[in-house]
Amino acid sequence: MQTAPLVRFRNATLGYGRRQVVLDNVNMDILPGDFFGLVGPNGSGKTTLLRAILGILKPLSGEAIRQPGLRIGYVPQREMLDPLFPLTALDIVLMGRYPQVGVLRSPGRAHRERALECLDQVGMAEHAHKLYRDLSGGQRQRVLIARALAVEPSLLVLDEPTNGLDLPTEASILDLMEHLHRRQAMTIVLVSHVLNVVARYATRIGVLMDGRLIAGTAEEMMREGVLREVYGVDVCVQQIDHHYLVTVREAQEVCGA
Amino acid sequence: MSEWIETWRSPIVQDALRVGVVLAIVGGCLGVYVVLKRIVFVGAALAQVSAAGVALALLVGWNPLWSSALFALAASAFFAQSWGERRISRESLIGAVFLTFSALTVLLASKGAHGMEEVQHLLAGDILAVAPEEVVRIALLGTAVLVVFLLLRKQFLLVAFDAETAQSLGYRTRWWEFAFYLMLGGFIGVVIHLVGLVLIFGYLVLPAVGALMLVRRMTLVAGVAVVNALLATVAGLLVSVLFDLPTTATILVFMSALAGVESLAGIRIAR
């Protein structure tokens, strides 16, 4: 039996206003249990597709269907948040509980405990009462992931979570994603402009290029021929420890040599 | 001394104190969000648009309260629009609105019965000249704004801090933005013709600046801002009555002094 998708796009045209079409003829399913990597260069329409997945942007034509009652935990780019606000890590994670708290009420003890559990889940419990602006880039990223988990989501959407992080921190954030996906069966959509970040963990990959989306399983997409067609350059695809590594092929280079 | 105490106890000063307390509490709370949302100059522009509404009302014989409130609400709706990618920055637009309505205020007031005197009043205002019936009106409005703000503050905070996540959680951020600007614009619109542009702008900025520099917890910032504003109001009124100084300027000097001291203390604590 086919599992019902959490989000489905059928012949969707995405853009702004009447004239500015960013992505055309988008066909994509996000299925429960997916680790969906969305990759593309800057300006390729990643943010537009992400906003459509979140339900913030309605398609200009075609269909974008979200499973009724779908809860999405969203992790925005860290740079989008203003460090001027004197908010602690716990304050920020509690924001993920607001829809459950209700409009006129304040978060009670149960919500605070849930928020602390989420901080613990991402290894940030000891920093709960520190100011967000005093945390490192990797710690801030974990706090934002904890906030997304506090929503108790069926789908976790992360926008460029490894941007501006050093290599060990990037690896630890991606390991956390893999842990959430494998151990807690979390459905994940990870958006990045770096193919290798996505290729390393994603089970399905969508590449955005020239206003269109090409999507498939990691095995289908991580082929030298497919990537050559998408990016217009010769590449080498290697598999190391079940993870893909893509490099641009130099002239005369033999892949894997 | 007894003469001074008598002056302090006079109904005029007591009414000014009551108005000042309302402005301090409401301005202190809203001001924290105005400063954090980086919309300080939206506050100034809203106040200037309201002032133009008052000037127009005085010229054509309308009720200044309704006129300034209507102007402020229209401006609130305008500023609450999402700006997105346009040809000019939001700051430029705020500057353009401020300048346009400053000029309009002067032009309209210059044709009024009292000419530039009205402009001076709109800018500097006079908290000591507030009529008793206006005190009740300001207190009622202030209470209403404060209750709405306190009940909805967590949504205002989320939308101000991270609008995109708020949208992903199902909040209609444009409406929440509009609600905030409506509160802000409505309050400014009602009080501006009584206390003047400069004083209301001061209440929205200076107490919050001091509080944000001094304390490092969101839960404490609004409380400290309100205390700042209350201290400056009482001290400003006292000193202005005692030394026969302009009240608005004296209150603002106390606000600035508090903000300065708290900024220095905050920097020392951070080290």
Describe the structure.
The complex is a heterodimer of chains A (257) and B (271). In chain A, the strands form three sheets. A six-stranded mixed beta sheet of chain A has the order 5-6-7-3-8-9, with helices on both faces. In chain A, strands 2-1-4 form a three-stranded antiparallel beta sheet, with helices on one face. Chain A contains nine helices and eleven strands. Chain A has a single domain (7-230), classed as 3-Layer(aba) Sandwich (Rossmann fold), CATH 3.40.50. The mean pLDDT of chain A is 88. The longest helix of chain A is centred in the last third of the chain and has 17 residues, at 167-183. Chain A has 257 residues and is an alpha/beta fold. In chain A, helix 2 crosses helix 4, helix 2 (89-95) packs parallel to helix 5 (137-150) and helix 4 (109-121) packs across helix 5 (137-150). Chain B has 271 residues and is mainly alpha-helical. The mean pLDDT of chain B is 89.
Strand content of chain B: under 5%
Please, what is the oligomeric state?
heterodimer
Please estimate the helix content of chain A.
25-40%
Could you describe the largest sheet of chain A, including whether it forms a barrel?
6 strands, mixed
Termini separation of chain B (Å)?
44 Å
Q: What is the makeup of the main sheet of chain B?
A: none
CATH class descriptor name of chain A: Alpha Beta
What class would the helix/strand composition of chain B place it in? mainly alpha
Anisotropy-based shape of chain B: globular
CATH topology of chain A, anyone?
Rossmann fold
Helix content of chain B: over 70%
Largest protein-protein interface: A-B, 29 and 23 residues
Put simply, the count of helices of chain A is 9
Estimate nothing, just give the exact number of structural domains of chain A.
1
